[in-house]
């Protein structure tokens, strides 16, 4: 059957993908800088907010955004990798088995990094949580690099631009495999919420039961603890 240009990725999924990529890159690059601490923390919370959205969208979103469409069985992963060595590699309109595992790993590492980052910022749990935070961020970077490599390899094998597909939302496939709705309103709401949060900066850091301390007060508390 002849393949046509079909819509696979809705706008909320694409918006989430690129906002998370920017947030992680920014948070990772500012991790070691005291000067850019507020930016690092803000981007870290942005990641948690984006992940929360993605978990919901993975349940109620369009066909290929739903987690139910992710092939995760070990046998399917093995069969997919074996097919890459043949002249007829398995093709998936949405995520392939390897990509599905990578996405779950990135979501898990992002949640772990965000939660431990929150604990570190508010000095909860001790030094081991700070080390776990750094480890989770490093592990996520590793998964991201593997994911990028997989995207490049898959693009070459299947002769399709997967990066372009995540920008436009379109891939080659059978007409019956495409989705019908882009969900522009949902994507716009996600983008505006993220930009609004960034515009507010550190003033919008999540509150604790006693109120969210600003960066200066956190630093002062640390200084007092070290000398007290």
Summarize the structure.
The chain is mainly alpha-helical.
CATH architecture classification:
Up-down Bundle
For the biggest sheet, the summary is: 2 strands, antiparallel
Within CATH, the superfamily carries the name Transmembrane di-heme cytochromes, Chain C
**SSE-based structural type:** mainly alpha
Order of helices and strands: EHHHHHHEHH
Tally of alpha and pi helices: 8
Mean pLDDT: 87
Radius of gyration, in Å, reads 20 Å
Distance between the termini: 74 Å
Poorly predicted tracts of residues: 206-219, 221-226
Shape: globular
Overview of the structural elements:
This protein has one domain: Up-down Bundle (Fumarate Reductase Cytochrome B subunit), CATH 1.20.950. It is built from eight helices and two strands; from the N terminus they run βααααααβαα. It is mainly α and 228 residues long. Mean pLDDT is 87; it is low at 206-219 and 221-226. Helices cover 64% and strands 4% of the residues. Strands 1-2 form a two-stranded antiparallel sheet. The chain has helices at 11-29, 37-60, 74-83, 97-121, 127-158, 162-168, 184-200, 215-227, and strands spanning 4-7, 170-173.
List keywords for this structure.
2 strands, mainly alpha, Fumarate Reductase Cytochrome B subunit, 64% helix, disordered C terminus, 4% strand, 228 residues, two-stranded antiparallel sheet
């Amino acid at each position: 059957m002849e393949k046509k240009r079909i819509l696979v990725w809705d706008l909320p999924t694409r918006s989430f993908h690129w906002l998370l990529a920017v947030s992680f890159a920014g948070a990772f690059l500012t991790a070691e800088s005291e000067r850019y601490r507020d930016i690092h923390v803000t981007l870290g919370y942005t990641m948690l907010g984006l992940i929360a959205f993605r978990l919901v969208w993975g349940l109620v979103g369009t066909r290929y955004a739903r987690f139910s469409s992710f092939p995760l069985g070990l046998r399917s992963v093995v069969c997919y990798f074996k097919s890459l060595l043949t002249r007829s590699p398995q093709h998936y309109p949405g995520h392939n088995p390897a990509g599905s595992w990578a996405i779950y790993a990135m979501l898990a590492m992002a949640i772990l990094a965000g939660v431990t980052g929150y604990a570190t910022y508010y000095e909860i749990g001790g030094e081991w949580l700070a080390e776990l935070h750094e480890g989770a961020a490093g592990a996520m970077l590793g998964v991201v690099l593997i994911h990028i490599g997989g995207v490049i390899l898959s693009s070459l094998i299947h002769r399709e631009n997967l990066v372009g597909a995540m920008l436009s939302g379109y891939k080659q496939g059978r007409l019956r495999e495409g989705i019908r709705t882009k969900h522009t309103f949902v994507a716009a709401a996600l983008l505006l919420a993220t930009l609004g949060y960034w515009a507010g900066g550190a003033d919008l850091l999540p509150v604790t039961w006693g109120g969210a301390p600003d960066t200066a007060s956190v630093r002062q508390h640390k200084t007092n603890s070290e000398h007290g």
